[in-house]
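SEQUENCE-TO-STRUCTURE ENTRY
===========================
What this section holds: a protein sequence and its matching fold, both as plain text.
Question of interest: how does this chain fold, as expressed in backbone structure tokens?
***
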Amino acid sequence: MLTAIAIENYRSIVRLRLPLQQLNVITGENGSGKSNLYRALRLLASAATNQLAAKIAAEGGLDSIFWAGILLPEMGQSAKEPKRLRLGFSSSDFGYSMVLGLPVPSLSFFDRDPEVKFEAIWHGPQLRPASALAHRDGPVVQSRDAAGWKMMHHHCLPYRSIFDTLADAKTSPEIMNLRESMRSWRFYDHFRVDVDAPARQAHFGSRTLVLHHDGRDLASALQTIAEIGDVKALHALIDHAFPGCRVEIHVMDGKFHLMWHQSGLRRPLNAAELSDGTLRFLLWAAALLTPRPPALMVLNEPESSLHPDLLAALGKLIMHAADNTQVIVVTHSSRLRAVLQQDKACSHIPLLQQDGVTLIADQSWLDAPAWTWPDRMR
């Protein structure tokens, strides 16, 4: 389980340290930085999937996502320092952080790609010289085992992460397990439910342990839960949200069709006939009741387009998922937050914006998790 997230110099997030529990609810007014936090977490995850440069390019390049305001001494940074984006997390077992900067000027057409300046992987909750397992300083990558430190690479490409480099060489299984754990993180921020949404179409199905991000394989994902997942929870949560209703999957000519049985109707409804709210709830059920729980699941405004009466059922669905995976929920809904806070393992993190800077409300420096960046480790 992740115990802390650290972010520096990403849009409105100048310096943020988030303590985490098994279930976390992040709230705040519009413009407080919730979306920036969500996007920063996606960037952090991309370090393990070799998509970091592409993700940053999609946001307009590294220079466009740096904090654009005035740096103040109390922010812990100096205007004389080179611009750096810092992202990292720690857990009870291992931690990872990276420091990104602008590339050295060149004639390359890819002169907006970020360069990885520093990286570190460590054992335990905090990076210290004694806990470091791997370290990257520019092109030089080193790792440590029982015999001590050894050089892994002298000329690591600036756009490749330490995970890519160490995957090419014999390294500790702990580091590779950390990479696979990060690759398992899942992010859900929007499900289409319009008339042309993929979830409304029948499809050729196969066993689907993880719902596609656009919901195109909803019927096969629900059938997979029915056959090898927690089908009792699926039926119970649907009945809680829609009393007397149930979902069933039919297969015709190899295509999977979602059929919705509702009391009072003489025939079941197909996915194309469902209301937006009903379809969206079924998508969340398929995503959260996955038979292959990830290490971390991040949900961005899951309450969108749902009737307020469904939020209690959605909250129970999220709490059920948190029994098997760590969950971060970014939400506007005070009602959903109230439901989730019934769980004793739930942590509420309220964000606010002050002078354009995203902060955690009422967090003092004593409340923030201890943190050391790899470029500041001495």
Remarks:
- The radius of gyration is 22 Å.
- The first strand starts at residue 2 and ends at 10.
- The chain has a mean pLDDT of 91.
